[in-house]
Amino acid sequence: MKILVLIDGSKWSQKAALHAIAIAKKRGGKVILLSVLDRREARSMAFNLSMFTDRLEKVESFENEIWKEMKKGIRTIMTGLMELCQEEGVNCSFRIIEGLAKETILREANSGNYSLVVMGAYGRSGKTRIGSLLEEVVGLINVPTMIVR
User: Has this prediction a pTM greater than 0.85?
Assistant: First the structure.
């Protein structure tokens, strides 16, 4: 059994990983943690920060710093989840891909010979409605998908 877990850094995606690890442990499966980082998110945050601080000339340096922190943050989360897998005796690997989330997730989920895709119901914003990425991809993934609340 090969399980793909979508990690966006939210507590919901980390909770999804815990469920995937438990399933893999019971079934002798492998967990693949996937995170897709979109540079446009860093650019948007940098623009907002530069507008707020009235420092438009700093947009590029803000973007580079935010991008660096985004990558560092997701790598820290992935490393922690990998350590948990090792403690539980579960085979695990992770991938961090730069690109567009929807397209990258659909390509990986539908071509990676997965038995199950697991994702959190909500994203980093923590809004009470189902996450927008989930709405975009869940019906287009061709393997069983588990949504964790």
Answer: yes
